[in-house]
Each structure stands twice: as structure tokens, then as C-alpha cells.
Amino acid sequence: MTLEIISPDEILFKGEAESVTLPGQLGRFTVLRNHASLISALNPGDILFRTPDGHEKSVTVKGGIVDVDNNVVAVCVY
After folding, report:
1. What confidence tens digit (pLDDT) does each residue in 62-76 have?
2. Contact 2/11 with Cβ under 8 angstroms?
3. pLDDT of residue 62
4. d(C-alpha 32, C-alpha 30), whole Å
5. Residues 6+ apart with CB under 8 A from 38
6. Residue 22's pLDDT band (boundaries 50, 70, 90)?
7. Checking DSSP bridges between strand 64-69 and strand 38-42, what pairing results, if any?
8. CATH superfamily of 2-77
9. In whole numbers, what is the pLDDT of the chain averaged over residues?
10. What are the CB-based long-range contacts (under 8 Å, 24+) for 24-32?
11. Domain ranges of the chain
């Protein structure tokens, strides 16, 4: 699936990911390929993701929103 993490100032990550774990307002949740569509607000915390080559990466955020649709995870953070 495609993961895009953007802030008002820059693109923090754009590429393929095997899994994405996000700090949702109701708790952490993980998105995998073919996940149901959703929109969620994000709390402060870390976005953790695994790339197809097996590397795990993280981005610390103060909050934001995520939109999951058709194997695209679009995250706008601040």
C-alpha cells in the first residue's frame, strides 16, 4: 500500500509500506493492505511503519488526521 505522511512544511515520507500503526484518538491502530476505508483524528505520538524491505521507521507527531482508502494511507500531521 502507499503511505504519504505530510506536514504543512514538508513531505515526511512517501512510498510503499507493509503496515502502518497510528496513534488514534481511541487508541493505537494498525492498517494493513486492503484495510476498510476510514478517517480518524490522531493524538500526539509515533507513527510506526514497515517498508517492503523489512525496515521499521517512525515519525513523531503532535496530532493530525489520517485517511485510508483503496490501499492509500494519507496522513496530514502537525
Report:
1. 999 999 999 999 999
2. no
3. 97
4. 7
5. 66, 67, 68
6. very high
7. antiparallel
8. F0F1 ATP synthase delta/epsilon subunit, N-terminal (2.60.15.10)
9. 97
10. 24/66, 31/1, 31/66, 31/68, 31/73, 32/1
11. 2-77
